[in-house]
Design a protein that fits this description.
With 172 residues, this protein is α/β, with parallel strands linked by helices. The chain has 5 helices and 9 strands, in the order βββααβαβαββββα.
Length: 172
């Protein structure tokens, strides 16, 4: 599902720097919307769905978050922990969680350092124009920290349904 990117302007989104299945997921510690923090390596032993989205409380990001919420029971029943990451400050994420009754952690990455380690920030095209921004991306990480699935440039609508079909194949 990934698009090729122009490598003359940035190195963060080239195909060669994007993460792929089989690589170790970069570790991080980020603050959550509930005042704590999440360190990825502390989740070893659990499978993690880590998704990056552009901005809390926007239509597309709300749709995607609500889709994860609506499918959370099925995901957790099959052993997945869902984590959403955006550049928004924790207070905005807390409002997003409350407004939309989200029941999974939302992580704040205001300096985009984790976005960049996952190649989820860089050049993207929007309405025919190239600009820098968050690249809607999702990673499925196995119990040992290995990436099982890396998806870039996903669409908000239908993404969770498509992801769940891929998870069913991984779990088969």
């Amino acid at each position: 599902m990934s698009e090729s990117t122009n490598t003359s302007h940035t190195t963060t989104t080239t195909e060669s720097t994007r993460l792929v299945a089989g690589q170790q997921a970069p570790d991080f510690t980020l603050p959550t919307d509930q005042g704590g923090s999440v360190r990825l390596s502390d989740l070893r032993g659990k499978r993690v769905i880590l998704y990056f989205y552009p901005a809390a409380m926007t239509p597309g990001c709300t749709k995607e978050a609500c889709d994860f919420h609506d499918n959370l029971n099925r995901l957790t029943a099959t052993g997945y922990t869902v984590l959403g990451v955006s550049k928004d400050p924790v207070d905005k994420l807390a409002k997003f969680r409350e407004r939309d009754h989200l029941t999974f952690p939302l992580l704040s990455d205001p300096d985009l350092s984790v976005h960049q380690r996952y190649a989820a920030y860089g050049e993207k095209k929007l309405y025919g124009k190239t600009r820098m921004g968050v690249i809607r991306s999702t990673f499925v990480i196995d119990t040992d920290g290995t990436i099982l699935l890396a998806r870039y440039n996903v669409r908000a609508t239908g993404h969770v349904n498509s992801l769940m079909k891929q998870l069913d194949k991984l779990d088969a």
